[in-house]
Amino acid sequence: MRPDQDFDDEIRGHMALSVKERIERGEDPEAARLAALKEFGNVTLTRESIQAVWRPRWVDVAGALAQDIRIAWRSHRRAKGLATAVVLTLALGIGANAAIFSVVREVLLRPLVNRDEDRLIYIRQRAPGLGAENTAFSVPEIDDFKSRVSSVSAFGDFSMIEFPLVGFGEPRVVQAGVVSGSYFEVMGLHPVLGRLLTSEDDGPDAAPVAVLTYRFWSNSLNRDAAVIGKTIRIGTRAATVVGVLEPSVPYPADTQLIANVVTSPHHLGATMVTLRTHRMTELFGRLAPGATLEAATAELNEVHAAMMREHPEAYAPNGNVQLSVARLRDQIAAPAKTVLLVLLSAAGLVFVIACSNVANLILARTVRREGELAVRAALGASTGALRRTLLAESLVLCGLGAVLGVLLARPLVAVVGRFAARFSVRALDASADASLLWIGTGLAMAAAVVLAYVPRLPIQQTPTGPGPASGGVRITAATNRRLRAFAVAQIALSFVLLAGAGALLATLVALQTANTGFNMRQVLVLDVPLAIEEMGAKSVGFSREAIQRIGKLPGVRNVAVGNFAPWRDAGTLLPKLPFAVEGYTPADGEENPYARLRMITPGFFAALGVPLVAGRDFSDEDRRDGELVVIVSQTIAQRLFPNGEAVNRQLWWDTPLLGKQEPRRIVGVAADVDDENVVPGPALTVYHPLQQMPAGGRLFVHTEGDPYTFVGPVTRIIREISAAQPVERASTLSDVRTAVLAPERLNAFVFSGFAIVALVIAVVGVAGVLTFSVSARTREFGVRLAVGSSRGRLLLRVLSEGASIIAVGMAAGAVCGYAFVRIAASYFESVRLPEPLPIAIAAAVLVAAAVLASLMPAARASRVDVLRALQSE
Amino acid sequence: MAKPSDDRRLELLQGTLDMLILRTLQWGAQHGHGIGQAIRTQSDDLLKVETGSLYPALHRLVKRGWLKTDWGVSEANQRARYYRLTPAGKAQLLREQDRWSQLVHAIGRIMNPSPASKE
Fold it and tell me: Is A536 helix (H, G, I), strand (E, B) or coil?
């Protein structure tokens, strides 16, 4: 039944009957028609009421809400200051959350592009006993897995190697993946151009070919389709570019190209192929049809245990060597998880603070409007209608906040993405898209609904409340309590954030100012990488010539070559290796000590400002065919030799990785420097003369004046010696440290950003509560002044009110923060309670800010005009 | 501007209109005008239902499933919508009648307390 069309017929029928009746009673036809019309009344109104009967309920509600929103919009335009504060606060809260959630979704939730990515696993070998979280695999180990495991249908292997690359503009160093032909099939990836590698590219006789990664192709080569078929030189080999890989998550490392095994002579060598301890290959697998992750894990572990039984010499007994298997997606997300969850909770806190602040502002406003609401209630507005009015007002505010927040989130996504990319490359793909809108809208709706329920309605009030007649503001105890509760919550949460930011900043300062033992400002370090097979006579000759010629530049004090740039190379090269010394026998069950191995030229210590505490430096006379010598760090001398007298004692490496090693005589002891950790710890380091263990790749130049002015001349000299030699990443040691600390700095920066936002919101909140409380008590202050209270007393009174909010808030914050840390510590072992100093500083900042916030309302209270105050009601 | 006859007219108690409509339709289908007239004549002109209330009420009852409608031709030879009770409407009428008599009884005892009612 569609009443709207039929109703006119129904009316006509009604009229006809009515007229007929009247005519039958003897009325004049015309008069009867008029009377009938008059009797019927307002046709339009009746029609509308009938339509209302048939309309779904929500249409009415929505219509009323739309009406309310129009009114709300107008009412907000009258109170611009309040509306602006609310909108900005919400925008910050919504923007931060939307941005971080976008990154979280990209990193933790979105599936990979790889075909059947949930069947793709990453297998990791680790030796927690040696502190090695990922030892990778050796080729013999991988062969064992391939032949014995059936629940994994195919394995893909990937090892990374640094190549000097010639063929695309300036010579440069690239990270290259070296893979067997099964790799791309296992990973389930496709080319966007050309082809990928197949099993036909395997073996020593295949043609050297390389596939470019999408990021390299688009960022560095302008998506030039002509690269296919181009011949490039990587390391010592020429290779043909055969394809470009589709955009995909690079794991375990972001490389510029992926090449077949034949491009890397190292991969074809006997060490690589036969040595079970030569572990540099990452292993991926695809679960066989029907096999579960659990089944595959169990089978892999079984095979691994058998391998360890068969080759006990290849697995350190105290290494506690284990296998761990994870879905590739989870493996990629794992490192970023903690950081992102911390950020997400920080953003969540900011949102809660923002909401409670907005709640406060709205509550204060509603109290002023209690008279208006009472009038509405008296005129028959139901509780629902009043709530709807309030909901409309908060919807308008939250809607504006969401719009602004989403605009704010767009650039924020990029910042947070770059930050999180330190932990997971996937974060780089996070972009501002439509989902931001949904998140923003969701948060805004949640906030709006909560906010609409914050104020009490006059209907539920006791009759003593302000009646419709009184237009004045009278603040009730309950409202006051609510206002204070919100302010306290803001202070408490801000305190938690400030203390967290303080702790991060304190860590950063400690890292940045720790004494490293190096000459930080005057030493320039440059990467001059050589291909592995060039390290030999050529590298020694190259180093000697470079040192000689650069040393002649005016202003250069010392030049040296080494194989390790402090901090920058940490974790990328050789692991620590076991060694033994003459006259020191490890106690039962104790293993040989482990030391870092560094290769350096004479003058290294002088160039880096590291003093020799005993013995001599290397000299050009320490040749390959001469006596084998080493220099050790002070900690080795002190720990392993009586009275630290290490000079002239013998030392030898005890690991199959270096083959059979002769004893070497210790000729010097150098002061401890820790080139792996920015905050130095005791370092066991053994230095070899470069001539006796050829390596290189890092050039150290100690200069006068600004070190960076030497980059040009040094590069020129190196290119004169070898035209295709890459020279990269020139930087002073001090800047290396700064760069290495970038994640910490960004961490502290992002967190401090949150803390400052929280602080600003909280200060606005406290000031708002006090201002409101003062303005609502104008009369009280007037009376107090009239009966002789001094203005100073009033000022103090308001200030102490503010102080009590702060005190309670900080106490609550301390309790919350403590509980939070305890809970977090039970999930993440790296979480600790911060030092007292940053907490004290955070507290001081908060107190200072809050006192400033209370000054203005306090001053206003003390300036109350007695007469006006008393007349105001 | 009340007409003299309005003086003795009674306001319908809130909520009773639905019951009166259902009751009127107990004897068969009727159109809106007829229902209004029936209520008026059966109450000796004491109750008069405004069309502005009657029609929305009728539609409300249709929506709740207590009435059905058919188009027919009225005494005035005009197309008219006839309303008829559904089984659910009949049940509702019984319920409302019950409630009504309870209410009348209760109010009666309060307004006319008699020793007899104190048994």
Answer: coil
Tell me which residues of chain A have a C-beta less than 8 Å from any C-beta of chain B: 1, 3, 6-7, 9-10, 12-14, 16-21, 39-42, 45-46, 49-50, 52-54
How would CATH label the architecture of B9-108?
Answer: Orthogonal Bundle (1.10)
Sign of CA dihedral B22, B25, B31, B36: negative
pLDDT of A36 over the 50 cut:
yes
Among B49, B55, B66, B83, the strongest candidate for a mutation testing the A interface, having the largest count of A CBs within 10 A, is B55
Q: Is ipTM strictly over 0.85? A: no
Burial class (CB in 10 A: 0-12, 13-18, 19+), A717: middle
Least confident of A372-381, A422-431, A806-815, B42-51: A422-431
Which residues on B lie below 8 Å from A35 (Cβ)?
none
Would you say the pTM of this structure is higher than 0.95? Answer: no
Tell me which H or E stretch contains A732. strand A728-732
Considering all CA atoms of chain A, what is the largest pairwise distance in Å, rounded to the nearest integer? 143
Whether pLDDT at A684 is above 70: yes
For residue A291, the tally of other CB atoms under 10 A from its CB is: 17
Locate A213 and state its tokens.
């990664």
Return the closest-CA partner of residue A346 out of A487, A507, A490, A501: A501
In this predicted structure, what is the pLDDT of residue A470?
A: 44
Distance CA A773, CA A475 (A): 8
Q: B55 and A52: CB-CB below 8 Å?
A: no
Q: For A168-268, list the strands marked E by DSSP.
A: 169-179, 191-194, 209-212, 231-234, 237-245, 257-260
**Dist CA A611 CA A673 (whole Å):** 10
CB neighbours of residue A473 within 10 Å:
20
- Listing DSSP states for A619-636 in one string gives -TT--TTS--EEEEEHHH
Strands A322-327 and A120-126 come out as antiparallel
The chain-wide mean pLDDT, for chain A, equals 82
